[in-house]
Amino acid sequence: MKKIVFALLLCGLPLFLNAQDAFDVLQMSQTELRGSSRFQSMAGAFGALGGDISTLTQNPAGIGVYRNSDIGITLSLDCNSTESGVDKLNETKFNVNNVGYIGAIRLNSESVPNLNFGFSYNRLQSFNRHYVGGVANIPTSMSNYIADEFVNVAGFSADDLYWEEDFNPYFDGYAPWAAVTTFDMETNNGGFVGIINDNGGAMQGLFGNGTKGNAYYEVDERGHADEYNIAFGGNIANKLYFGLDFGILDLDYRSFQSYEEELTNPYIMIDDEDLFDTPIDNYNTRADWGLYNYLHSEGTGVNFKLGLIWKPVQSLRIGAAFHTPTYYDMRDTYYVSASLNGYQDENLLYRADKGSNDDYDYSSTYTIKTPWHFMGSLAGVIGTKGILSFDYEYVANETMRVGDDRNNDYRDVTENVKAYFKPSHIFRFGGEYRINPNWSLRAGYSYKTTQVEKGVDNYDYNIVTVGTNPTYQYDNAVHNITGGIGYRYKSFYTDLAYVHKMRKSVYNAFSPINDDFGYEPNVSADVTDHNNRVSLTLGMRF
Fold first, then answer.
1. In Å, how far are 34, 36, 50, 430, 491 from 537, measured between CA atoms?
2. pLDDT score of 14 more than 90
3. Any idea which fold 7-541 has?
């Protein structure tokens, strides 16, 4: 599909203003390499091995491998460095990655030697990331995108953009409120101007012939996705291991995003009632403006996992697992504000600002269905000294859905999900070498492919977002390089792991505009973050 028709936004506009767009749902559906230190140090390649508390989030058949009860806790220290262009920000966070208990019930039967149950807490994802950057000599302005795509192409007029006292753009089906926020702004001396303006019946942005400028952006994300697991499993004749898992998830995501432009010779408006709706000559003009978005998403969800491990011979294990989608009930709270300073001949003409909720927060409720997962695994046991393990995971990103709080899918978001995303593939390799009965060395590597279609990465699509924020971002690749050491003494064990995660992402301030008249690029930047994690697990088997 070379072009996505913008009418997709219009046919479901009242619904679209109540929920997340496709890229927001993608971000909230991801997981990362976390869990016990032994699990992390082998890059999570445990799908055919089991015998670790973290397998409750991966292949629940791993609970059937246990012969003894197990209790453990994992603590970690994350040092994250995020770089965009020449700007780099560093953060350090302490986390509790994993806490769990496995209870083994021995049945003294050859056909069913044991049945086991377990409970665990696992941090599936940390959203914490903060980066800033700038783009020099921008090819166009976000104001042009808002004016063209959110108003002109959508068929709205200036009359649709006035903000009445009781205006509520989240629910009332008004024009897209990124446009409402940047239009008809009150100035410091009582007049009204806009970042987008009516010029002869069509809306225009600030960027035109002779305009030049730079852009600056900041993205500050916080939050987590945690899973609480209840699992049951066992084994049949020490050959076939099975497991069932019920997961309860807690998601909390907060995001502050700012986008600012400094423009020389922009097409700004005079703050004069007699000349309103008439652009001044852009000679010797300057404009500084910004759009600021805050979002808080929180929700709870449930999922199920099924798994099997088959041991045809002592040295070979084969595993398979299926994860249903996670079904979330979500609530969002959000606001937006915009500001504009206009200058001519270096003299300040006006300051203007506008916000969506000076006295209260807007909120909405909706549902999310994350992708389903399938995992295939293979492991070899080399005598009493070594283990080699491989996992492959298929993530069906194109099956994500967003709906209202009555579980009716939004058709518009569904179509966008199908157009923008493709399955991602995760490959995990892990190994362990037992030096002696007490000490073990471990290492691993994992790689996750991109989730977006080639046309998204090549800027062939008009990307539809919702609400006030035209910005979207996605990952191109995620690598984990891991290592660790383990110590066993009688019933006590401790494991230490190191994980280096490298993620390459793309930040887009707004969608590129592709139409029959040619290509207009957007403002985008590459983002790379490196996370260095050290984790420690303390546990006991009895």
1. 12, 6, 17, 18, 14
2. no
3. Porin (2.40.160)
